[in-house]
Specification:
This is Right-handed parallel beta-helix repeat-containing protein. This protein is mainly beta. It is 10% helix and 34% strand. The longest helix is centred in the first third of the chain and has 30 residues. The protein is globular.
Length: 437
Protein backbone atom coordinates (compact mmCIF):
# COMPACT_ATOMS: atom_id res chain seq x y z
CA UNK A 1 0.00 0.00 0.00
CA UNK A 2 1.40 3.34 -0.98
CA UNK A 3 1.96 6.25 1.37
CA UNK A 4 -1.07 8.11 0.03
CA UNK A 5 -3.32 5.09 0.44
CA UNK A 6 -2.03 4.48 3.97
CA UNK A 7 -2.73 8.10 4.92
CA UNK A 8 -6.26 7.86 3.51
CA UNK A 9 -6.97 4.65 5.44
CA UNK A 10 -5.58 6.17 8.65
CA UNK A 11 -7.85 9.21 8.32
CA UNK A 12 -10.85 6.91 7.74
CA UNK A 13 -10.06 4.93 10.86
CA UNK A 14 -9.52 8.12 12.88
CA UNK A 15 -12.95 9.40 11.82
CA UNK A 16 -14.56 6.12 12.88
CA UNK A 17 -12.78 6.31 16.24
CA UNK A 18 -13.90 9.88 16.77
CA UNK A 19 -17.48 8.96 15.96
CA UNK A 20 -17.33 6.11 18.45
CA UNK A 21 -15.86 8.37 21.12
CA UNK A 22 -18.50 11.06 20.53
CA UNK A 23 -21.29 8.47 20.52
CA UNK A 24 -20.03 6.91 23.74
CA UNK A 25 -19.65 10.29 25.40
CA UNK A 26 -23.17 11.28 24.33
CA UNK A 27 -24.67 8.10 25.78
CA UNK A 28 -22.80 8.60 29.05
CA UNK A 29 -23.89 12.22 29.23
CA UNK A 30 -27.53 11.27 28.66
CA UNK A 31 -27.33 8.91 31.62
CA UNK A 32 -26.03 11.66 33.85
CA UNK A 33 -28.06 14.75 33.01
CA UNK A 34 -31.73 15.24 34.01
CA UNK A 35 -34.43 14.17 31.61
CA UNK A 36 -36.11 17.05 29.80
CA UNK A 37 -39.91 17.06 29.91
CA UNK A 38 -40.67 16.78 26.22
CA UNK A 39 -43.64 14.74 27.40
CA UNK A 40 -45.32 17.82 28.75
CA UNK A 41 -44.30 20.47 26.29
CA UNK A 42 -46.81 22.38 24.17
CA UNK A 43 -47.96 20.67 20.99
CA UNK A 44 -50.64 23.18 20.06
CA UNK A 45 -50.07 26.88 19.32
CA UNK A 46 -53.42 27.67 20.96
CA UNK A 47 -53.94 25.22 23.81
CA UNK A 48 -52.04 24.40 26.98
CA UNK A 49 -49.26 21.85 27.26
CA UNK A 50 -50.48 18.38 26.36
CA UNK A 51 -49.45 15.27 28.21
CA UNK A 52 -48.05 12.29 26.36
CA UNK A 53 -48.89 9.55 28.83
CA UNK A 54 -46.07 7.19 27.87
CA UNK A 55 -43.35 9.81 28.11
CA UNK A 56 -44.86 11.34 31.20
CA UNK A 57 -44.83 7.91 32.84
CA UNK A 58 -41.05 7.97 32.35
CA UNK A 59 -40.85 11.20 34.29
CA UNK A 60 -42.83 9.66 37.14
CA UNK A 61 -40.46 6.71 37.13
CA UNK A 62 -37.37 8.93 37.24
CA UNK A 63 -38.67 10.82 40.29
CA UNK A 64 -39.69 7.58 42.01
CA UNK A 65 -36.16 6.26 41.41
CA UNK A 66 -34.48 9.31 42.94
CA UNK A 67 -33.43 10.90 39.65
CA UNK A 68 -33.87 14.39 38.20
CA UNK A 69 -36.37 16.04 35.86
CA UNK A 70 -36.06 19.46 34.26
CA UNK A 71 -39.03 21.38 32.77
CA UNK A 72 -38.37 24.05 30.18
CA UNK A 73 -40.54 27.16 30.32
CA UNK A 74 -42.48 27.06 27.05
CA UNK A 75 -44.85 29.88 27.97
CA UNK A 76 -47.82 27.65 28.80
CA UNK A 77 -48.53 25.46 31.81
CA UNK A 78 -47.59 21.82 32.00
CA UNK A 79 -50.37 19.49 33.12
CA UNK A 80 -50.27 16.40 35.31
CA UNK A 81 -53.00 14.04 36.45
CA UNK A 82 -52.08 12.26 39.65
CA UNK A 83 -49.53 12.65 42.42
CA UNK A 84 -45.79 12.87 41.75
CA UNK A 85 -44.01 10.67 44.29
CA UNK A 86 -40.39 11.52 45.06
CA UNK A 87 -37.68 9.14 46.20
CA UNK A 88 -34.46 10.03 48.00
CA UNK A 89 -32.33 12.63 46.12
CA UNK A 90 -34.96 13.20 43.42
CA UNK A 91 -35.39 16.69 42.03
CA UNK A 92 -37.94 18.53 39.90
CA UNK A 93 -36.54 21.74 38.49
CA UNK A 94 -37.80 24.23 35.97
CA UNK A 95 -36.73 27.34 34.16
CA UNK A 96 -37.92 30.50 35.91
CA UNK A 97 -41.65 31.03 35.32
CA UNK A 98 -42.51 27.37 34.81
CA UNK A 99 -46.12 26.55 35.77
CA UNK A 100 -47.43 23.06 36.51
CA UNK A 101 -51.17 22.41 36.77
CA UNK A 102 -52.32 19.42 38.80
CA UNK A 103 -55.66 18.16 37.51
CA UNK A 104 -56.19 15.26 39.90
CA UNK A 105 -58.06 15.24 43.19
CA UNK A 106 -55.01 14.27 45.25
CA UNK A 107 -51.90 16.16 46.24
CA UNK A 108 -49.66 17.41 43.46
CA UNK A 109 -46.65 15.72 45.06
CA UNK A 110 -45.67 13.43 47.92
CA UNK A 111 -42.34 13.13 49.74
CA UNK A 112 -42.77 9.98 51.84
CA UNK A 113 -40.68 8.96 54.88
CA UNK A 114 -37.16 8.08 53.83
CA UNK A 115 -37.22 10.29 50.72
CA UNK A 116 -34.60 12.68 52.05
CA UNK A 117 -32.87 15.47 50.13
CA UNK A 118 -35.68 16.08 47.63
CA UNK A 119 -35.57 19.41 45.77
CA UNK A 120 -38.21 21.40 43.85
CA UNK A 121 -37.04 24.56 42.13
CA UNK A 122 -38.76 27.31 40.13
CA UNK A 123 -42.06 25.44 39.79
CA UNK A 124 -45.32 27.33 40.38
CA UNK A 125 -48.09 24.85 41.13
CA UNK A 126 -51.70 25.47 40.18
CA UNK A 127 -54.57 23.09 40.71
CA UNK A 128 -57.73 22.30 38.76
CA UNK A 129 -58.74 19.40 41.01
CA UNK A 130 -60.36 19.47 44.44
CA UNK A 131 -57.37 18.66 46.64
CA UNK A 132 -56.62 21.01 49.51
CA UNK A 133 -53.08 19.65 49.78
CA UNK A 134 -50.32 20.90 47.51
CA UNK A 135 -47.76 18.44 48.82
CA UNK A 136 -47.04 16.25 51.83
CA UNK A 137 -43.45 16.32 53.07
CA UNK A 138 -42.70 13.55 55.57
CA UNK A 139 -38.95 13.27 55.20
CA UNK A 140 -35.84 15.26 56.03
CA UNK A 141 -33.91 17.89 54.09
CA UNK A 142 -36.67 18.80 51.63
CA UNK A 143 -36.08 22.06 49.78
CA UNK A 144 -38.44 24.22 47.72
CA UNK A 145 -36.85 27.25 46.09
CA UNK A 146 -38.59 29.82 43.90
CA UNK A 147 -41.97 29.27 42.24
CA UNK A 148 -44.70 28.58 44.80
CA UNK A 149 -48.41 27.86 44.64
CA UNK A 150 -51.56 29.57 43.37
CA UNK A 151 -54.84 28.00 44.48
CA UNK A 152 -53.03 24.68 44.77
CA UNK A 153 -53.60 23.73 48.40
CA UNK A 154 -51.45 23.57 51.53
CA UNK A 155 -47.81 22.53 51.65
CA UNK A 156 -47.72 20.25 54.72
CA UNK A 157 -44.60 19.33 56.69
CA UNK A 158 -45.51 16.33 58.87
CA UNK A 159 -42.89 14.71 61.10
CA UNK A 160 -40.28 16.29 58.83
CA UNK A 161 -36.80 17.50 59.69
CA UNK A 162 -34.56 20.28 58.41
CA UNK A 163 -36.66 21.37 55.43
CA UNK A 164 -36.51 24.73 53.73
CA UNK A 165 -38.85 26.93 51.66
CA UNK A 166 -37.40 30.13 50.25
CA UNK A 167 -38.07 32.84 47.67
CA UNK A 168 -41.50 31.44 46.74
CA UNK A 169 -44.96 33.02 46.46
CA UNK A 170 -48.11 31.48 47.92
CA UNK A 171 -51.57 32.70 46.96
CA UNK A 172 -54.16 30.10 47.94
CA UNK A 173 -57.67 31.42 48.20
CA UNK A 174 -59.04 27.86 48.18
CA UNK A 175 -56.80 26.46 50.93
CA UNK A 176 -57.07 26.91 54.67
CA UNK A 177 -53.36 27.70 55.00
CA UNK A 178 -50.45 28.14 52.61
CA UNK A 179 -47.92 26.18 54.71
CA UNK A 180 -48.57 23.91 57.70
CA UNK A 181 -45.78 22.64 59.96
CA UNK A 182 -47.18 19.87 62.13
CA UNK A 183 -46.79 16.50 63.90
CA UNK A 184 -43.48 17.21 65.60
CA UNK A 185 -41.71 18.68 62.58
CA UNK A 186 -38.54 20.55 63.51
CA UNK A 187 -35.73 22.47 61.88
CA UNK A 188 -38.01 23.77 59.10
CA UNK A 189 -36.92 27.16 57.74
CA UNK A 190 -39.50 29.30 55.93
CA UNK A 191 -37.52 32.28 54.72
CA UNK A 192 -37.93 35.12 52.26
CA UNK A 193 -41.35 34.15 50.90
CA UNK A 194 -44.42 36.17 49.89
CA UNK A 195 -47.90 35.26 51.14
CA UNK A 196 -50.83 37.00 49.50
CA UNK A 197 -54.59 36.50 49.90
CA UNK A 198 -54.42 33.02 51.38
CA UNK A 199 -57.74 31.99 52.89
CA UNK A 200 -56.16 31.09 56.23
CA UNK A 201 -52.73 31.45 57.80
CA UNK A 202 -49.71 32.09 55.69
CA UNK A 203 -47.86 29.67 57.98
CA UNK A 204 -49.45 27.60 60.76
CA UNK A 205 -47.39 25.66 63.31
CA UNK A 206 -49.08 23.09 65.54
CA UNK A 207 -49.15 19.61 67.08
CA UNK A 208 -45.74 19.44 68.70
CA UNK A 209 -43.81 21.22 65.95
CA UNK A 210 -40.76 22.87 67.50
CA UNK A 211 -37.44 24.51 66.69
CA UNK A 212 -38.64 25.97 63.38
CA UNK A 213 -37.48 29.30 61.94
CA UNK A 214 -39.94 31.66 60.22
CA UNK A 215 -38.06 34.72 59.01
CA UNK A 216 -38.07 37.53 56.45
CA UNK A 217 -41.47 36.64 54.98
CA UNK A 218 -44.12 39.21 54.18
CA UNK A 219 -47.70 39.83 53.22
CA UNK A 220 -49.75 42.86 52.24
CA UNK A 221 -53.07 41.04 52.41
CA UNK A 222 -53.90 37.66 53.92
CA UNK A 223 -57.06 35.99 55.17
CA UNK A 224 -55.82 35.70 58.74
CA UNK A 225 -52.38 35.84 60.38
CA UNK A 226 -49.17 35.73 58.40
CA UNK A 227 -47.91 33.35 61.13
CA UNK A 228 -49.97 31.48 63.71
CA UNK A 229 -48.59 29.10 66.36
CA UNK A 230 -51.21 26.92 68.08
CA UNK A 231 -51.21 25.94 71.77
CA UNK A 232 -49.49 22.59 71.19
CA UNK A 233 -46.32 23.90 69.48
CA UNK A 234 -43.27 25.34 71.21
CA UNK A 235 -39.76 26.74 70.89
CA UNK A 236 -40.10 28.32 67.43
CA UNK A 237 -38.64 31.61 66.17
CA UNK A 238 -40.64 34.24 64.24
CA UNK A 239 -38.18 36.94 63.20
CA UNK A 240 -38.00 39.92 60.86
CA UNK A 241 -41.24 39.24 59.03
CA UNK A 242 -43.59 41.91 57.72
CA UNK A 243 -47.34 41.48 58.11
CA UNK A 244 -49.78 44.13 56.96
CA UNK A 245 -53.37 44.09 55.79
CA UNK A 246 -54.28 40.72 57.30
CA UNK A 247 -57.89 39.90 58.19
CA UNK A 248 -56.98 39.03 61.80
CA UNK A 249 -53.91 39.63 63.96
CA UNK A 250 -50.63 40.14 62.13
CA UNK A 251 -48.92 37.37 64.14
CA UNK A 252 -50.40 35.17 66.86
CA UNK A 253 -48.65 32.79 69.28
CA UNK A 254 -50.62 30.41 71.46
CA UNK A 255 -47.78 27.95 72.08
CA UNK A 256 -45.10 28.25 74.74
CA UNK A 257 -41.45 29.39 74.79
CA UNK A 258 -41.42 30.90 71.31
CA UNK A 259 -39.46 34.00 70.25
CA UNK A 260 -41.09 36.85 68.29
CA UNK A 261 -38.27 39.17 67.26
CA UNK A 262 -37.91 42.22 65.03
CA UNK A 263 -41.15 41.87 63.07
CA UNK A 264 -43.14 44.76 61.61
CA UNK A 265 -46.93 44.46 61.89
CA UNK A 266 -49.11 47.27 60.59
CA UNK A 267 -52.60 47.94 59.31
CA UNK A 268 -53.99 44.55 60.30
CA UNK A 269 -57.66 44.00 61.13
CA UNK A 270 -57.20 43.09 64.81
CA UNK A 271 -54.11 43.23 67.03
CA UNK A 272 -50.61 43.60 65.68
CA UNK A 273 -49.15 40.71 67.70
CA UNK A 274 -51.34 38.51 69.91
CA UNK A 275 -49.66 36.36 72.55
CA UNK A 276 -52.04 33.76 73.95
CA UNK A 277 -49.41 31.28 75.21
CA UNK A 278 -46.91 31.15 78.06
CA UNK A 279 -43.24 32.09 78.50
CA UNK A 280 -42.83 33.64 75.08
CA UNK A 281 -40.39 36.47 74.32
CA UNK A 282 -41.63 39.43 72.26
CA UNK A 283 -38.84 41.90 71.59
CA UNK A 284 -37.78 44.53 69.07
CA UNK A 285 -40.99 44.47 67.04
CA UNK A 286 -42.76 47.44 65.43
CA UNK A 287 -46.58 47.58 65.64
CA UNK A 288 -48.29 50.50 63.90
CA UNK A 289 -51.91 51.35 63.12
CA UNK A 290 -53.52 47.96 63.67
CA UNK A 291 -57.19 47.47 64.59
CA UNK A 292 -58.37 48.31 61.06
CA UNK A 293 -61.69 46.61 61.76
CA UNK A 294 -62.55 49.93 63.40
CA UNK A 295 -61.56 52.13 60.45
CA UNK A 296 -64.51 53.07 58.21
CA UNK A 297 -62.07 53.93 55.41
CA UNK A 298 -60.39 50.54 55.43
CA UNK A 299 -61.43 47.55 53.28
CA UNK A 300 -61.04 45.57 56.52
CA UNK A 301 -63.71 47.62 58.30
CA UNK A 302 -66.29 45.67 60.28
CA UNK A 303 -69.10 47.99 61.39
CA UNK A 304 -70.35 45.35 63.87
CA UNK A 305 -67.05 45.27 65.76
CA UNK A 306 -66.89 47.26 69.00
CA UNK A 307 -63.74 45.63 70.43
CA UNK A 308 -60.56 47.37 71.52
CA UNK A 309 -57.32 46.39 69.78
CA UNK A 310 -53.66 46.74 70.67
CA UNK A 311 -50.25 46.79 69.12
CA UNK A 312 -49.39 43.80 71.33
CA UNK A 313 -51.98 41.75 73.22
CA UNK A 314 -51.27 39.28 76.03
CA UNK A 315 -54.30 37.15 76.82
CA UNK A 316 -55.21 33.61 77.77
CA UNK A 317 -57.20 32.16 74.85
CA UNK A 318 -57.33 29.39 72.25
CA UNK A 319 -55.70 26.89 74.62
CA UNK A 320 -52.90 29.13 75.88
CA UNK A 321 -52.54 30.63 79.35
CA UNK A 322 -51.29 34.11 78.43
CA UNK A 323 -48.85 33.95 81.35
CA UNK A 324 -45.23 34.80 82.12
CA UNK A 325 -44.41 36.32 78.76
CA UNK A 326 -41.67 38.93 78.27
CA UNK A 327 -42.72 41.92 76.16
CA UNK A 328 -39.85 44.39 76.01
CA UNK A 329 -38.16 46.87 73.69
CA UNK A 330 -40.93 47.13 71.10
CA UNK A 331 -42.09 50.22 69.17
CA UNK A 332 -45.88 50.64 69.27
CA UNK A 333 -47.63 53.62 67.68
CA UNK A 334 -50.70 54.88 65.84
CA UNK A 335 -50.41 58.08 63.80
CA UNK A 336 -53.78 57.87 62.03
CA UNK A 337 -56.11 60.86 62.23
CA UNK A 338 -58.59 58.56 63.93
CA UNK A 339 -56.53 55.92 65.78
CA UNK A 340 -57.70 52.32 65.68
CA UNK A 341 -54.86 50.73 67.64
CA UNK A 342 -56.31 52.05 70.88
CA UNK A 343 -53.97 50.23 73.27
CA UNK A 344 -50.22 49.95 73.14
CA UNK A 345 -49.77 46.73 75.12
CA UNK A 346 -52.98 45.22 76.45
CA UNK A 347 -53.58 42.42 78.93
CA UNK A 348 -56.87 40.64 78.30
CA UNK A 349 -59.46 39.12 80.59
CA UNK A 350 -58.66 35.51 79.87
CA UNK A 351 -61.17 32.70 79.52
CA UNK A 352 -64.89 32.84 79.98
CA UNK A 353 -66.15 30.34 82.54
CA UNK A 354 -68.41 27.49 81.63
CA UNK A 355 -72.08 28.24 82.30
CA UNK A 356 -75.10 25.96 82.37
CA UNK A 357 -77.91 26.30 79.81
CA UNK A 358 -75.77 28.57 77.63
CA UNK A 359 -75.42 28.63 73.84
CA UNK A 360 -71.85 27.97 72.69
CA UNK A 361 -70.47 28.29 69.18
CA UNK A 362 -68.37 25.54 67.62
CA UNK A 363 -64.69 25.34 68.64
CA UNK A 364 -65.27 27.55 71.66
CA UNK A 365 -62.74 27.44 74.53
CA UNK A 366 -63.97 27.69 78.11
CA UNK A 367 -62.53 27.46 81.62
CA UNK A 368 -63.95 25.11 84.23
CA UNK A 369 -62.40 24.36 87.64
CA UNK A 370 -58.77 24.72 86.63
CA UNK A 371 -59.14 23.11 83.20
CA UNK A 372 -59.52 24.38 79.64
CA UNK A 373 -61.97 22.65 77.30
CA UNK A 374 -63.06 23.11 73.71
CA UNK A 375 -66.17 22.03 71.87
CA UNK A 376 -66.10 21.11 68.19
CA UNK A 377 -69.85 21.60 67.65
CA UNK A 378 -72.26 24.33 68.55
CA UNK A 379 -74.94 23.64 71.13
CA UNK A 380 -76.57 24.52 74.43
CA UNK A 381 -74.73 23.40 77.55
CA UNK A 382 -76.20 21.02 80.11
CA UNK A 383 -76.29 21.28 83.89
CA UNK A 384 -72.96 19.71 85.00
CA UNK A 385 -69.63 21.43 84.35
CA UNK A 386 -67.22 19.36 82.21
CA UNK A 387 -64.66 17.48 84.29
CA UNK A 388 -61.75 15.13 83.57
CA UNK A 389 -59.50 14.46 80.59
CA UNK A 390 -60.19 13.30 77.07
CA UNK A 391 -63.66 13.94 75.65
CA UNK A 392 -66.19 14.69 78.39
CA UNK A 393 -69.75 15.96 78.48
CA UNK A 394 -71.73 18.48 80.46
CA UNK A 395 -74.89 16.49 79.81
CA UNK A 396 -75.52 17.97 76.38
CA UNK A 397 -72.28 19.21 74.76
CA UNK A 398 -69.14 17.09 74.27
CA UNK A 399 -66.01 18.96 75.35
CA UNK A 400 -62.37 18.06 74.60
CA UNK A 401 -59.91 18.61 77.44
CA UNK A 402 -57.06 20.88 76.30
CA UNK A 403 -54.89 21.53 79.33
CA UNK A 404 -54.78 22.28 83.03
CA UNK A 405 -54.53 25.96 83.92
CA UNK A 406 -54.25 26.58 87.62
CA UNK A 407 -55.71 29.64 89.26
CA UNK A 408 -58.64 31.59 87.89
CA UNK A 409 -57.88 31.31 84.17
CA UNK A 410 -56.65 34.89 83.92
CA UNK A 411 -53.33 35.90 82.30
CA UNK A 412 -50.65 36.80 84.86
CA UNK A 413 -46.93 37.21 85.42
CA UNK A 414 -46.23 39.04 82.16
CA UNK A 415 -43.20 41.34 82.10
CA UNK A 416 -43.99 44.46 80.06
CA UNK A 417 -41.16 47.02 80.02
CA UNK A 418 -39.11 49.50 77.97
CA UNK A 419 -41.48 49.73 75.03
CA UNK A 420 -41.61 52.96 73.01
CA UNK A 421 -45.19 54.07 72.50
CA UNK A 422 -47.07 56.90 70.80
CA UNK A 423 -50.67 57.59 69.82
CA UNK A 424 -52.14 54.69 71.82
CA UNK A 425 -53.14 54.40 75.46
CA UNK A 426 -51.46 52.13 77.96
CA UNK A 427 -53.79 49.32 78.86
CA UNK A 428 -55.19 48.87 82.32
CA UNK A 429 -54.25 45.75 84.26
CA UNK A 430 -57.43 44.13 82.95
CA UNK A 431 -58.79 45.26 79.60
CA UNK A 432 -61.35 44.31 77.04
CA UNK A 433 -61.07 40.77 75.70
CA UNK A 434 -60.82 41.93 72.08
CA UNK A 435 -63.43 39.47 71.00
CA UNK A 436 -61.70 36.45 72.51
CA UNK A 437 -63.48 33.92 74.73
Amino acid sequence: MGFTAMRTETRRQDKVSVRRIVLGFTVALCLLIPVYASALQDTSPQGPAVENEAEFAEIRVRLSEGRSVFLENRGRPYRINGTLTFARNASLRGAIGTVLISEGDGAAFDVPPGATHVAIENITFRQNGRSRTLGAVRAGNFRLTGGGAVDAGTLVFSNARNGRVERARFENGVAANAIAITNGSSGIAIEGNEFERNAGFGIQIDNGANGNDISNNWTRANGIELVGIRYNAFGNVIAYNRAEGTGDNGISVTGDRNVVLGNRVSGNALNGIAIYGDENTVMGNVAIGNGQNLNPQSPLHNPQDTSVYAGILANGAFGGGGRNNVIVGNIIADDQTQPTQLRCVMVGQGYGRWKAATDYTARRFIYADGEIYQTENAGTSGTLAPSGEGVVTDGRIAWTHIRTLAGNGRPSGNMIANNQTAGCDHAPARAETSGQP
